[in-house]
């Protein structure tokens, strides 16, 4: 199985493609991995912002210092 980072689904994937990229284009492989990691970090930051905003909306902005 291969996790599709574009639409979030799992699908069958020919892993030999990954091996070819790693072998013949190691810089491209590294760039792809870094892009994926960066996307994960951005998604995590967005989730944290979303929940922080929800908490602020529930308790009011006067309690903002408590969240820092």
Topology at a glance:
Layout: E1 2-3, E2 10-11, H1 15-24, H2 26-59, H3 64-67
Antiparallel strand pairs: 1-2
Helix pairs in contact: 1-2
Description of the structure:
Keywords: Plasmid. The chain has about 70 residues and is mainly alpha-helical. The chain has one domain. Helix content is about 70%, strand content about 5%. It has helices at about 15-25, 25-60, 65, and strands at about 1-5, 10. Strands 1-2 form a two-stranded antiparallel ribbon. A hairpin with a 6-residue loop joins strand 1 (about 1-5) and strand 2 (about 10). The radius of gyration is 19 Å and the shape is rod-shaped. The termini are far apart.
What value does the average pLDDT take? 76
Distance between the ends:
40 Å
Report the sheet-strand fraction: 5-15%
Number of helices: 3
Helix and strand composition category? mainly alpha
Task: Report the radius of gyration as a whole number of Å.
Answer: 19 Å
Oligomeric state as shown: single chain
Regions with little confidence, pLDDT below 50 for 5+ residues: none
**SSE topology string:** EEHHH
**What is the number of beta strands?**
2
Structural shape: rod-shaped
Q: Mind describing the biggest β-sheet? A: 2 strands, antiparallel
Strand order of the largest sheet: 1-2
Quickly count the domains: 1
- The percent of residues in helical segments reads over 70%
Short description:
The protein is 71% helix and 6% strand. The protein is mainly alpha-helical. Helix 1 (15-24) crosses helix 2 (26-59).
């Amino acid at each position: 199985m291969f996790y599709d980072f574009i639409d979030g689904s799992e699908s069958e994937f020919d892993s030999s493609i990954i091996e070819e990229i790693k072998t013949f284009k190691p810089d491209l492989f590294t760039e792809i991995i870094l892009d994926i990691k960066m996307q994960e970090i951005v998604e995590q930051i967005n989730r944290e912002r979303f929940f922080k905003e929800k908490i602020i909306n529930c308790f009011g902005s006067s309690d903002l210092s408590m969240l820092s």
